Amino acid sequence: MNLDIYFQPLEPGNYIDDMLGDLTSFYDQDGFPEIDNADIAIFGVKDSRGAGGTDFNAAPDVIRRQLYTLFHHQRKIKIVDLGNIVSGNSINDTYHAVADVVRELNKKNVFTIILGGSQDITYGNYLAYEKLEQTVNLAVIDDSIDLSENEDEITNKNFLSKIIIHQPNYLFNFSAIGYQTYFVNPSVKQLMEDLFFDAYRLGEIQSSVMKSEPIIRNADILSVDVSAVRYAELNGKRSSGPNGFYGEEICQMMRYAGMSDKLSSIGFYEYFSENDKNNSGAMLVAQMIWCVVDGFCSRKQDYPFGSKDSYTKYRIHLENTDHELVFYKSDKSDRWWMDVPYPPNQILKFERHHLVPCNYDDYKDSSEGKIPDLWWKTYQKLN
Question: Given this structure, which CATH class describes domain 3-296?
């Protein structure tokens, strides 16, 4: 597939040695970059028609101006910037263009970073995996949970609903990270529980940012709404909510994302340049992306790659139950997974999802006779 048909080229920039811009091949006047041997592909989506009148279209280029001046300190990798997707005649055309591009990059094992645009572009990202006929896990970092049944058109306030009801459906699990309870309708919270999806409040994650690591590690797709960051840290957003993640917290979470061997695409959405008078918000988003790239360079080829020979296996028998809990600890990264059983006739459907990322506390609780909530939720979905 010739991906260049979807994109507008970028204006050339000047970068010194070891800046990210120096390591990146751009779609510019010299032509479209070669993606076959790329490690990471970045592209922008200048489409905000799902945002109810707010224009986020300047975001990709404003963020780029900050991102490519940052210095790279890890092993050399090949980054390509494909430019900005040309908006379709309808928003659905844009979604399908995003899907075609992400699908092609996934087939070539190229990690994808999307610069939005409004967050409903996540729907287009999800469609890429549908076309690959692959069940996926989606995680969203946001101050709210964008589930709504009131609109027919897809918007940045209901795109999760559209993903959940879309047929054929390839969504195995959804995790909401950092939501603020007063922004979420109780019926939405109940729906999350009924579907055995995961929802983590802002305070729960802030009490220990490390709690987000296995959640992010379990995702194939990560969608980041910059509204999840507090306004004092990132004023380049539409709302001025005082609460949210601190800059160092969101950057740590982005490094977890980059380090995840399972995550194959991530999108950054709803940066509003008009409210960012000194570009400090754009710089924070750029540093978030830098942390993703830095984490990517530290990947260990843990699950779903490699063999279980590189893991230490732990078995825990729970008294008064028929369940035996099995945990694996990577000898390469010290990260943990728990093995959740599933029907043998569902091996093709669920093979990617029975080994669930967790942390040492889950193992410790299990050794004391407590079954982790994540184990139960996954077991119910698998069986």
Answer: alpha beta
